[in-house]
Amino acid sequence: MATSSERSPPPFPDSEDQDVLDAEEVRGRDSDEDEDLFGSTVCTGGVDLAVSAATKSDDFVDILGSETGAQRGEVVKADVTVEATIDRSEVTAGVTDPLSQQEAKQTSTTPVIDLSGDSQPVTSKIADPLVDLFSDAPPAAEAKKPSSANIDLFDDEEGSDIFAEPLQTKPAKQPQKSLFGEPDEDKSVTTKVTAGGPLQDSKPADIFSQAAASTPSVTSTVNPKTNGVHSEEDGDIFAEATVELSLDSPRNERKKEATAKPSAPAPTSLPAAASLAKPQPPALEEVSSDLNPDKDFRGHLMMYVLFFSGDGMNAYMAYKVSTQTTLPMFRNKTFTVRRRFSDFLGLYEKLSEKHGPNGFIVPPPPEKSLLGMTKVKVGKEDSSSTDFVERRRGALERYLQRVVNHPSLLQDPDVREFLEREELPRAVSTQALSGAGFLKMINKATDAVSKMTIKMNESDVWFEEKLQEVESADQQFRKLHALVESLVVHRKELSLNTASFAKSAAMLGSAEDNTALSRALSQLAEVEDKMEQLHQEQAASDTFTFAEMIADYIRLLVGFFPHRKCEFCDLQGSFDHRMKAWQRWQDAQSMLQKKRETEAKLLWANKPDKLQLAKEEIAEWEAKVTQYERDFERVSATVRKEVIRFEREKTKNCKRQVITYLECLLQSQQQLIKYWEAFLPEAKAIA
Amino acid sequence: MLQVDISDALSERDKVKFTVHTKSTLPNFKQNEFSVVRQHEEFIWLHDSFVENEEYAGYIIPPAPPRPDFDASREKLQKLGEGEGSMTKEEFTKMKQELEAEYLAIFKKTVAMHEVFLCRVAAHPVLRKDLNFHVFLEYNQDLSVRGKNKKEKLEDFFKNVVKSADGVLVAGVKDVDDFFEHEKTFLLEYHNRVKDASAKSDRMIRSHKNAADDINRIASSLYTLGTQDSTDLCKFFLKVSELFEKTRKIEARIAADEDLKLADLLKYYLRESQAAKDLLYRRSRALVDYENANKALDKARAKNRDVLQAETSQQLCCHKFEKISESAKQELIDFKTRRVAAFRKNLVELAELELKHAKGNLQLLQGCLGILKGNT
């Protein structure tokens, strides 16, 4: 959750930061914990602004050419959207209490409508352009023709990228250029606004609605269009942005600078828009609560997976998933649901289907284990089966944790449903031997074959390096995992042997006829008994903290290369998705080439009737090529971002886990010292 | 004064040559200080000569040192040589060092056990005066003892079978002396317990060693992970690898010390209690002989035939039994004193070493955690 706190803040850009800093001063409530978080978010805004400011003059011109003028306005608008949201969020933040809607409305209204007489200078400043935006946007939107959803979506995503991932300044900037370069730019802006519109309709409580209210006409005109246009991906993309909101802003809200919020919640409205676009009833709820954070907003999810199982041979294991959250997107703060293992798999299937093609790394669930399950069912009191259960429980918990920690996945309605809804439709496709599963297997096999045949000449050095890195890390982790497993085995052996030695020592003590020696020996037996406990605990810690962490990473790493045969799982990897996108692009290109050749031939053969058709086809394919190329770039960017996110998470997680592990070791050493210290006088007392 | 130690030992292929160094003021030695080279077989010869000597029937014969067993270690070294290609150079050197250390440890242990045997003999009030012992210490040529041939081994085997069968018979005889009766039950129980404890401690230590080996391998694996590039995480891994490397050294030391202080002690007392049991067996045997002689005498008297012969043998048996009983009592008391002292010494040392190592480990962990937490 503290993801953003780890980001290195890029150099502070000029103006926007000033504003932000001002705001910071204005609102003097803060806590140091959020300082860095805040810093990074500020940068987000800063970068964004800086880019747009810079682009106005140079980049834009190349890309847009004649459209520059219009573009200029749009840039401002784009800018403003951010600001607007900032504004809004500030309001949200400002309203600390279980926000009385009235208050919210007032505060937001003031900046939007009033330009000057506001108590908060920053807000007013921002509000200024906001008004601009709203007055500009509608005409722009109307002027523009509805463009393909794809591009639109692309824009949005890149835009939110920037908010979400300030770490990567360069790659972030690049897409942004294209964002602004897109003729559909304002379209996307409008979409955002529109999002405000319906929002307002359904939720009068919404603060943003005030803003939207000023442009009701826009809302109504664009709204239907947008609804149609929004794709699933769109939602995700928005979600990605929202992540920041849900992960950062909560904290901000409580303890932190108001300023941090500006950038973080900037995309707030986006997910709202996204989810609104889809007919998702909970989305509304989310939106409303999003904007009405209550006081105890701590902004993170806590999850316990408790295990209990049914009866009989048909028994299945059910897991109790308890969520504790202060995220406003959930209806309650704590809730518990019962889930089966297949539900977890089902969740993964849904998520990977939706997000995988975009290059997201969808955390893989633990693998199905028929053997382990059967063991659990048959030999109830076996230690290996309890071990298995605990392992799986832990793995599932970490899996869920990883999903909710993933900024975009958390926003997915399926995730929310999984955590919140009482009854979940049974996931059929995940059953091991079902027909669907079989089909999927075949699909995967063909996929694997095609992947092996695709030879992608990697033009991007970064990807090449990463790929190699990941591959060797994968190998190393595997090796390490095997070693740790063997350590666990030996540790368990040691524990067993220590226990039996303790027994023998006790017997020896009882056989000994020297009283003091006999006593010392039975003491030794006790010490060894305790040692046995220690070894056992240590073995558990080896397993659950160390080995499982490694296993998790192997699972995750495998996520990069699903085509590789692996015992852990088989899933769609982001690198492969990228490869697929590339393949599509290449195919389209060669197709275009063919069409062009045909055209040339026709031209030469002088057949004007067919020529027209060929030209149309060329145009069509040209569009496709650009689209696929963009797709590819988008996927690349996402993968890149995801890999960085993954690495950051990995580093953090690894460190935390290893430290926990070492602390456990430390504790057992302390115990050891205690035991032997108690024993020493006994040994000395032997006379 | 008689002081014996093994000043040096040499491992040659399948045999170990011990340099036995003696310092003595006893008049029957030509010099005050001298050294000879002896092999394991010669130690066995000496031991067997004690066992076979009727004179020593009333004493606990110091147990013979176990045969040096380097086979496992050698085999491992050989395997390592074969697997050289499949390992990285680092791993190879690490493994090699490890095996060499293991070999050295076994070597030292073997030497120590042989030395203990000689010291026990040298400290024994009667055995130290044994002629064979003196020859063993002084004669600077090869004693040209040969290992037992197959026939002798077979004989030994039968002897053992007869002895143990006899032991069962003899054990059923109720002892007249409470002290010996008590000692007998005690030793029987004790021997079994020590045997059990020794086996268990061996297993415990072996698994401890295995765990230490695993830690070592984890350390090198982490090291490889850590050297892949220079990211933060890699540095972290390097640090952890370093820690593991150190802790595994300590773990290995713990295992080695437990081996030395605990397992070897138990093993020694396993053999020593066996020797004490043998003593009791000899005494019981003598007792049975004595009772049989008494019966024979009664019979002879009743028949009034060969009375004198029976009387002599009865008196012989009586004398033998009494002699054994007398020295055995003292021997058994000494055995107990020695045992308690040895256990005290070793257990104290064990506890101290365990403490030392645990504290070392603790310090390492604390230091490492401090660094790691400081970095994050």
Short overview:
Chain A has helices at 15-26, 35-57, 59-64, 68-94, 101-113, 121-143, 149-164, 169-181, 185-202, 208-213, 216-229, 232-255, 260-263, 269-277, 281-291, 341-355, 370-378, 383-405, 407-410, 413-420, 435-453, 461-511, 515-558, 574-605, 608-684; strands at residues 301-309, 317-325, 334-340. Chain A is mainly alpha-helical and 687 residues long.
Descriptive overview:
The complex is a heterodimer of chains A (687) and B (376). The radius of gyration of chain A is 30 Å and the shape is elongated. Chain A is mainly α. Among the domains of chain A are: 297-424, Phox-like domain (PX Domain), CATH 3.30.1520.10; 461-481 and 542-686, Up-down Bundle (Substrate Binding Domain Of Dnak, Chain:A, Domain 2). Chain A starts with 14 loop residues before the first helix and ends with a helix. The model of chain A is unreliable at 1-299, 428-434 and 562-572 (pLDDT under 50). In chain A, a hairpin with an 8-residue loop joins β2 and β3. Chain A has helices at residues 15-26, 35-57, 59-64, 68-94, 101-113, 121-143, 149-164, 169-181, 185-202, 208-213, 216-229, 232-255, 260-263, 269-277, 281-291, 341-355, 370-378, 383-405, 407-410, 413-420, 435-453, 461-511, 515-558, 574-605, 608-684, and strands spanning 301-309, 317-325, 334-340. The relative contact order of chain A is 0.08. In chain A, α6 packs across α11 and α23 packs antiparallel against α25 (608-684). A three-stranded antiparallel beta sheet of chain A has the order 1-2-3. Chain A is built from 25 helices and three strands. Chain B has 376 residues and is mostly helical. Chain B folds into two domains: 1-66 and 108-147, PX Domain (2-Layer Sandwich); 177-375, Arfaptin homology (AH) domain/BAR domain (Substrate Binding Domain Of Dnak, Chain:A, Domain 2, Up-down Bundle). Helix content of chain B is 74%, strand content 7%. Chain B contains eight helices and three strands; from the N terminus they run βββαααααααα. Chain B has helices spanning 40-52, 71-82, 89-123, 131-138, 150-171, 178-226, 232-303, 307-375, and strands at 2-12, 15-24, 33-39. Chain B has a three-stranded antiparallel beta sheet with strand order 1-2-3. Chain B starts with a strand and ends with a helix. In chain B, 34% of the residues are buried. The model of chain B has no long low-confidence stretch (mean pLDDT 84). At the A-B interface, α22, α23 and α25 of A face α6, α7 and α8 of B.
